[in-house]
Design a protein that fits this description.
Number of helices: 18
Radius of gyration: 24 Å
Structural class: alpha/beta
Helix content: 25-40%
Shape: elongated
């Protein structure tokens, strides 16, 4: 990927895409039934006015396509769903509204937590499914659904091996990630783009999968006699089409690129820099909500506290982990800088103008992998003493002097006023600083599903013919806010994409039933 920034990738994906063309249609986005915490569980009813869905008879004039399984959305979840369905012998149509497959997965770091893989066992053997599940649930204070968490952890080894069969190459990172108690973070060769390249190659090589790019589905198709989903309608380029399917899988991503939905559900993240997929406009969530789908965790999202204002790139969190501090424009610290990058993002965004300055010394500079790059880009501010640093960042010198002095005293005491105990040996001049703000990367809320990917109403009844996976579904990072564990979004997309595709290919519409999870001996903590 060379020196491309995430912004460069986003701009490239947006070119020729139809994703944002539908923005006006999605602007008035309050779901017809339900809100952030759920819906009333009511079905649409044959006499109900539908904004997005159409009855089969209403799309009779459109060009009709037929398939066993329709997958809407070509990111990681959609690619896995299409491949898994085809492996079960189903014919698949995969619709992607933008001009390229990959979605948010392409923009990701390609990292997932996985337990018991050959790669992990070569590094350590002290991990367990239970330990990984507890680590994932800890940031939310165990308020998220354990059945979703345990399902993805139980199948994490399988998804690594399965994607390896499709050309992905995984290795275990040497870093012990914040909040995780074992070396279990797996990264694909080539990061997210490398992963999607492998999955796309397998998809293109599979004759059972027909891929339609720049194919913008605009709503679901319902049976004339019931509320069962029998496909979707929209445009394939300029051609008006209706695709009829035995079962339909929504893999339409979240809503981080829909300003109105973001304002409604994640208002504190509205000013964040958007490092999101162009297609993350939330329409699949709206379609399902109209049919009575239960919406959960709609206020949850992944943020990142280290976006460089002056180079428009994600900065190096390690500078903070190794003892750097973050001050606002007044020169005051406002949080413990040793923590989750997502959890820290709303703290940065809450400062005046959403701006912070990552301040550090030679101790952190010498450990930095990016400092030379920052110098070349000209984004490093300097001061031979606190007053010079204050002048460089435009802060009140007296306030910054007090901030630095307090931190120096805290180092001697072993803990600061924010209960930070992960402290450097010293914090002495010369000083350096880089300007930062917060990012949003993807939302983590959406329609509730069971552990087979069936879309659920609030009363746990199934919306017949409808499955979902990935960013449009109920996540397990938090019930609301920026609590997040690295790899959560991608592992959920891959595992549940495969699960939903398999179920959609092997179940007969109208005969599926609620799938539940039960804890077993395999889920033990140790």
């Amino acid at each position: 990927m060379g020196n491309l920034t995430r912004r460069d990738i986003l701009k490239g994906l947006a070119f020729g895409s139809m994703a944002l063309a539908s923005g006006g249609a999605l602007a008035a986005c309050a779901p017809a039934a339900g809100g952030a915490s759920g819906t009333d569980g009511a079905s649409t009813g044959q006499g109900a006015a539908l904004r997005y869905a159409k009855r089969a008879s209403e799309v009779a004039g459109r060009t009709a396509l037929e398939t066993d399984v329709l997958v809407i959305g070509g990111g990681g979840a959609g690619l896995c769903a299409a491949l898994a369905a085809a492996e079960q012998g189903a014919g698949v149509i995969l619709c992607e509204k933008t001009s390229a497959l990959g979605g948010a997965t392409t923009l990701s770091s390609g990292k997932i937590p996985a337990v018991g893989t050959a790669q992990q066992l070569a590094k350590e053997d002290g991990d367990s499914i239970g330990a990984c599940a507890m680590d994932i649930m800890r940031p939310s204070n165990y308020s998220v659904r354990p059945d979703l968490v345990y399902t993805v952890v139980e199948q994490s080894r399988d998804i690594v091996e399965w994607t390896e069969g499709h050309g992905a190459v995984w290795s275990v990172d040497d870093a012990l990630y914040f909040g995780q108690t074992a070396y279990r973070m797996h990264t694909t060769e080539g990061a997210g783009a490398g992963l999607t390249d492998a999955l796309i190659a397998s998809t293109e090589a599979d004759s059972a999968i027909e891929t339609l790019l720049s194919c913008e589905m605009q709503g679901l198709v319902l049976d004339d006699e019931s509320d069962a989903v029998v496909g979707a309608w929209g445009k394939n380029g300029s051609e008006e089409i209706a695709i009829f399917a035995g079962n339909t899988v929504l893999a339409t991503s979240g809503f981080a690129n829909n300003p109105d939905m973001l304002e409604q559900y994640c208002p504190e993240a509205v000013p964040a820099v958007k490092v999101v997929a162009p297609g993350a406009t939330g329409e699949g969530i709206l379609w399902a909500a109209e049919l009575g789908a239960d919406l959960q965790n709609m206020g949850a999202y992944q943020g990142h506290a280290f976006h460089g204002v002056d180079n428009d790139k994600t900065l190096e969190q390690g500078v903070a982990n190794n003892g750097g501090i973050i001050v606002n424009q007044d020169g005051n610290r406002f949080m413990n800088e040793y923590g989750g990058y997502s959890e820290m993002s709303p703290h940065v965004l809450a400062q005046p103008d959403g701006i912070g300055y990552l301040c550090f010394t030679d101790l952190q500079r010498e450990q930095s992998k990016k400092f030379a790059e920052w110098e070349e880009e000209g984004i490093v501010l300097r001061g031979n003493d606190v007053s010079q640093l204050a002048a460089a960042i435009g802060a009140d010198p007296a306030k910054l002097e007090r901030t630095v002095s307090d931190y120096q005293k805290a180092i001697g005491a072993g803990m600061d006023k924010f209960n930070r105990s992960h402290l450097p040996a010293s914090f002495e001049p010369p000083f350096y600083a880089v300007k930062l703000t917060g990012e949003i990367r993807h939302t983590q809320g959406g329609m509730a599903t069971d552990v087979a990917g069936h879309v659920l109403r609030a009363d746990k009844s199934l919306i017949e013919g409808l499955y979902a996976a990935g960013g449009c579904t109920e996540g397990f990072s938090s019930r609301g806010g920026a609590a997040y564990m690295s790899g959560n979004g991608l592992i959920q997309a891959l595992v549940f994409g495969k699960i939903a595709g398999t179920a959609a290919a092997t179940e007969t519409r109208g005969e599926a039933s609620l799938s539940t999870w039960e804890k077993s001996a395999a889920d033990a903590y140790l």
